[in-house]
Amino acid sequence: MELKLSDFNYELPKELIAQDPLENRSSSRLMHVDRKTGNYEHKIFTDIVDCLSAGDCLVINNTKVIPARLYGVREKAGEGSQKGETVLTTGKIEILLLKRRQDNIWEALVKPGKKCRAGTRLDFGNGKLKAEILQVIEDGNRLIQFFYEGIFEEILDELGQMPLPPYITHELKDKNRYQSLCEV
């Protein structure tokens, strides 16, 4: 049997999509499906211990969501400018950091991608964070090198936004609320 992407399409009414996490994450809903019978029941997350049997493996995702979406501008050297001096900005740019490759080099999605070839320089936060596109790689992603003074994570926390899916309608004021750590 061949799986198709369309096999995973389903309608989810907008009113059933939680827009804000619960204050007490352990009270989040949990749907338990019995694989033998196909029966399901609705529970809360703290009930997960009742769903596990000896020998089961529970995988806990403790990854952190970072403010990986950056908005900035493309830079262009102006007429008569010296090498490296930027006097003009052209066009807005959006990047989504995917994976750190080396200290200051990240793999990222870039929008609009056609305007960001190798050598394109970017500016975020009026010079607080600068970048250069090093290479266009597989699937159109870019390798981007960042230049900054200070600690990258602090600059990212200041300038970046959380990468929200399109069905979430607003950002949370407290970026720590995006983390999904629960105590069971």
User: What sort of overall outline do the alpha carbons produce when their principal axes are compared?
Assistant: elongated
List low-pLDDT spans.
Answer: none
Strand order of the largest sheet: 3-4-5-8-7-6
Count of helical regions: 2
Q: How many β-strand runs?
A: 8
- Separation of the first and last Cα atoms: 38 Å
Helix coverage percent? under 10%
Radius of gyration: 22 Å
What characterizes the major β-sheet? 6 strands, antiparallel, barrel
Please tell me the overall pLDDT.
Answer: 85
Topology pattern, helix = H, strand = E: EEHEEEEEEH
Tell me the β content.
25-35%
Report on the architecture of this protein.
- The protein has 184 residues and is mainly β.
- The chain has two helices and eight strands; from the N terminus they run ββαββββββα.
- A six-stranded antiparallel beta barrel has the order 3-4-5-8-7-6.
- A hairpin with a 4-residue loop joins β6 and β7.
- The protein is elongated.
- The mean pLDDT is 85.
Record the SSE blueprint:
Blueprint: E1 29-33, E2 40-44, H1 48-51, E3 69-76, E4 88-102, E5 105-111, E6 121-124, E7 129-136, E8 142-148, H2 152-159
Antiparallel strand pairs: 1-2, 3-4, 3-6, 4-5, 5-8, 6-7, 7-8
Main traits of this protein?
mainly beta; six-stranded antiparallel beta barrel; two-stranded antiparallel ribbon; 2 helices; elongated
Brief summary of the model shown:
With 184 residues, the chain is mainly beta. Helix content is 7%, strand content 32%. The protein is elongated, with a radius of gyration of 22 Å.
